[in-house]
Amino acid sequence: MAKFVAKWNYPTTVRFGAGRIAELAEACQASGILRPLIVTDPFLAKTPMIAAAMKSLAEANLNPGLFHQIQPNPVESNVAAGIEILHKGGHDGVVAFGGGSALDCGKVIAFMAGQGRPMWDFEDIGDWWTRADPAGILPIVAVPTTAGTGSEVGRAGVITQESTHTKKVIFHPRMMPAIVICDPELTVGMPPFITAGTGMDALAHCLEAYCAPGYHPLADGIALEGMRLVFENLPKAYRKPKDLAARANMMAAAAMGATAFQKGLGAIHAMSHPVGALYGTHHGMTNAVFLPYVLDFNKKAIEERIGRAAAYLGIKGGFKGFRKAVMDLRKELGVPNTLDGLIPNLRNGLKMDKARKSLIADMAIVDPTAGGNPVKLTRKAALGLLEKALGGES
Q1: How does DSSP assign 97-150, residue by residue?
Q2: What does pTM read for this prediction?
Q3: Are both 140 and 282 inside the same structural domain?
């Protein structure tokens, strides 16, 4: 019966629905935040969306501040700069407002605000989270503006260590936002590329959680329904950005993926993390490139399970039909078939030479998500997946 021993956790309060951003000030007050620091990205900081949020908080006498020095893949110096602004402004809580990068960085800023140890001492390894002083963690209200990462219902943040170009997961149970405002109207302005990339991230979360080993039927059910929502609604949101029903369903799918992946992730993320850390590629799009190649790698371990998922999703042909549905979805969304398709977004001119490939493989096999893959991710396997993602084998 040992296989039936598990630990299950579920999200926090989520205020879901169009127009619920109007409740931001009240949500801050309910969370004990009287001087909120809005943490967002440089693009959103210039939008009417953030201006309206700042105005609503000020009108409620909550004395808001703003921090937006965040890279698309946030790094440790972004967290340090945010903590400095938070302390200077005397802020007592964080409103993490934006996509996955802003949400992750905002949560880690709130977590680290009152800690006396380096951030890397709280990496998601064993019980390292117990090193934290709970009294030093500030409350968080999360406001997602994309539908992908699901960080709004997560207890961790992914931050890149600049000295090693390695993405690390900082974890503590109290990093879970006290209140989440999921307002699909905030996602209407996402450009097609971001709609596609974040949506494919949600699909990857649901898929990997569903395939991860371990006993978690609750997560399996959530992941399965999350996949259905993505397949049915992501193309609609991509083609018709103002389709509020599709946007709402995608926001739900994103939260469902992050809820489900407490069961585990896998090689899609293990391969994507080092590529994103080294080259600055969009996380969801990088996941989307690796997805079919990891499906093939895991086939022997997941074929029956994927067959059941295909039947639920109304996809004929079992594993083969499911894979075809993934490829069709990628094509409809303009997802590159290979990593070469993301090269225009790469930074620093780093070439994908033999040494770089070896480094990515070494980073992948020690990534925290690698252990959740249903087939052991060896260095040889990681190199093989990378070559397929570069060559576009289908």
Answers
A1: EESHHHHHHHHHHHHHTT--S-GGGGBSSTTGGGGS-GGGPPPEEEEE-SSS--
A2: 0.93
A3: no
